[in-house]
Amino acid sequence: MKNVFLIIVTIITFINVNAQTPPIIYVAGDGSGDYNCDGISDQIEINQALDFVANNSNYTTVYLKGQNTYWINEPIFISENTTLEGDTNAVVKLIDNAGWNTKFKPLIGQTGLTYTSGLGDPSITTGNITIRGFELDGNRQNQTEPSGNSYYNAIVLQNCYNITINNMYIHDCLADALQTGYDLYGFDINLQYYNNRIHRSGHDGIIVINCKNFKIHDNIFTDNRTDAHIRVQNCNHFKIYNNIGGNNPNRQYTGGIGISMQANGDTPLNDAEVYNNYFYGKGYYYGIWLWQRNGGGTLHTHENVYIHHNIISWFQKGGIGIEGFHNTRIENNIIQSDGGLENTFPAPGIVFLGGDPTNNISGFQTIVKNNIIVDNITYGIDNRQPTIHSFISDYNCINGNLLGNYNNVTSTTDMYANPKLASNNLFQLYNTILNTNWTNANTTGDYSGDLGANEAKLMYHLKSEFGRWNGTQWVVDSSTSPCIDAGNPADDYSNEPTPNGNLVNLGAYGNTAYTSKSSNPSSIVDINNINDFIYPNPILDKIIVPSEFINAKYAIYTLTGKLIKFGTLNPNEIKISELNSGMYILKIRNYNSNKIRMFKIIKE
After folding, report:
1. What is the mean pLDDT of residues 105-116?
2. CB of 333 within 8 A of CB of 307?
3. CATH number, domain at 171?
4. 174, 194, 218: which is the final residue of a domain?
5. What percent of the chain has pLDDT over 70?
6. Mean of the pLDDT values across residues 295-303?
7. Cα separation of 591 and 589, whole Å?
8. What does the pLDDT read at residue 538?
9. Inside any domain, residue 286
10. What is the CATH number of the domain that holds 565?
């Protein structure tokens, strides 16, 4: 009878633990969960809950209840078709002196994970994994293994697809915060990595290997050392946007790259878009680095990386470094790699470093347009391999670069005036905003939030007498930046607020809703009062303007605003014989004096 009673109790206990309403199984530390932890080897109960979900199709989710710290001394393993989530005050934390002494062994991995330098058996894949909502603490300061040597990665997912990782706070791990990928090139990972806060990883904030089809966006990375905040290796068809990546202004690391895009010579990296990111110092290498690791490939193996609307400041090798990549488009960025903060490293704004040394490939090209490139230690744009590479530099503002604007680069459309940013002093920006926030965080141990990055970003808006966005409202400055309405006349400006001058602004806020405003373009000089300025009018063949506007930029629009012709006044005439008869709007801008004139003209 006693044995029968024990069997009945066991069955009842099993039913009570596992008969919760699908799809969620709860894990708690206060006795309120379906599985309950006691602070010792808590991965046991968490893994039991995950195994139950994996084996019961009605269940999808294991939920870690807070407020509680779940202490683990072995990894947590998640299977396919499973979500692991938790409260923001639920903390999974590695015990002190875990002593694993095993490389590639993470705090969280997929079921079947192998502890190898590769990514496991490529014939075995795992799909549909979501990790979100809770805190993951690698407890790096209380481990004995060295940092940055593949010990205690926070999350490793090998050969997994349909991955979502969001709203996590991952910090103080000895290696990567997330490592994922595949052992064969071109794996469709379908990764969504967003709204995460990654702090003080010993290696990469996130690394993706041999994959395509992923998005990394709206994350904050701080103090990730040895390598990069975001690193992609042998990948294509991806987007990286709306991220913040920053390092403690008072500390220097051997890595600290903002985004590292690397590829083997014969393994394509292409169709990549990087935009709306802010990366700031004190990284040892580049803010964005496109680099070829080994020989092989052709001119078109690595190409068509589109980098736009980013702010990059204080990287000691330079703002953007390129080697072995073709047809890179760099548009509407602000690049200020040092700005007088240290003046000790040879940091150019944008640099082409070289191609494939084994194949001697030539014909590389980089397009640089509508950027503001200022206060770099060597050149604004540096072409170190002019025999195999050329820069097309159009409509940029290049100023304050200590060795000059260019090395082996020419331009007929760039300007060289002070861009008049809201804060022209990067040193002051760092000390009054970023350094203050970081000092407070170091004192309190609270590294949440953006540590002043969004406030600092506002200092890169252009000054304007007609309206500059300060984060909460439009304010008026005592002067106007020459970078307003200074972009390529053929480029889109439709997202800019009115008045916008019918031309795109330079820099990271050009053609955005919060770019600085310009004078009202409707203030057009009447054709009856322009004989002392332009002639003849009406016009048969060409129009003459005063000599003070030689080398000024002009644009001709229809009355509906369509751009039909633009160029540079050289010497001081515009030929319009090819235009149809009718009325047009002529806009002329002298960047040296910042004079803008607009006229109605008649073509006979």
Report:
1. 92
2. yes
3. 2.160.20.10
4. 218
5. 90
6. 89
7. 6
8. 82
9. no
10. 2.60.40
Q: Bigger pLDDT: 553 or 466?
A: 466
Of the listed ranges 152-156, 253-257, 328-332, the one predicted with least confidence: 253-257
Cα separation of 566 and 489, whole Å?
7
Tokens of 280: 């700031």
Q: What pLDDT sits at residue 216? A: 98
113 contact partners, CB below 8 Å, separation of at least 6: 75, 77, 106, 120, 156, 158
What pLDDT, on the 0 to 100 scale, is given for residue 358?
62
Which of 499, 515, 523 is CA-nearest to residue 595?
A: 523
Query: Of 190, 218, 246, which residue constitutes the final position of a domain?
Result: 218
Q: How many CB atoms lie within 10 A of CB 375?
A: 25
Q: Which helix (H) or strand (E) holds 428?
A: helix 426-429
8 A C-beta contact, residue 214 and residue 191: yes
Residue 1 has pLDDT above 50, yes or no: no
Indicate if the pLDDT at residue 528 is higher than 70.
Answer: no
Query: Residue range 555-560: average pLDDT?
Result: 77
Name the residue range of residue 544's domain: 527-603
Q: What is the pTM of this model?
A: 0.87
pLDDT, position 599: 77
pLDDT per position as a tens digit, 138-182: 999 999 999 888 999 999 999 999 999 999 999 999 999 999 999
Q: How much of the chain, in percent, has pLDDT values that exceed 90?
A: 64
Q: Are 180 and 210 in contact (CB under 8 A)?
A: no
**Closest residue by Cα to residue 118 from 74, 177, 158, 75:** 158
Contact 105, 152 (CB under 8 A): yes
Name beta bridge partners: 586: 556, 599
- Spatial separation of the C-alpha atoms in residues 225 and 256, rounded to whole Å: 5
**pLDDT tier at 339, thresholds 50, 70, 90:** low
Q: 10 Å Cβ neighbour count for 546?
A: 14
List Cα–Cα distances, 161 to 14, 92, 214, in angstroms: 33, 24, 10
Residue pair 329/307 in contact (Cβ under 8 Å)? The answer is: yes
Q: Check pLDDT > 80 for residue 591.
A: no
Q: What are phi and psi of 438, to 5 degrees?
A: -70, -40
The two structure tokens encoding residue 503:
């031309």
Rounded to 5 degrees, φ, ψ at 36 are: -125, 135
> Domain for residue 558, yes or no?
yes
Strand-by-strand arrangement of the 553-557 sheet:
563-568, 553-557, 582-590, 595-603
Residue 413 lies in a domain: no
**Exposure b/e, 216-253, CB count within 10 A at least 16 = b:** bbebbbbbbbbbbbbbbbbbbebbbbbbbbbbbbeeeb
Give the total number of structural domains in the chain. 2
Which tokens hold the place of 258?
Answer: 């903002």
CA distance 198 to 208: 16
Question: Rounded distance, CA 119 to CA 158, Å?
Answer: 5
Rounded CA-CA distance 401/379 in Å is 5
Distances (CA, A) of 567 to 226, 458, 478, 484: 47, 32, 30, 17
Cβ atoms 244, 268 nearer than 8 A? no
**The dihedral of CA 472, 478, 482, 486: what is its sign?**
positive
444 within some domain? no
Burial of 345 per CB tally in 10 Å (0-12, 13-18, 19+)? middle
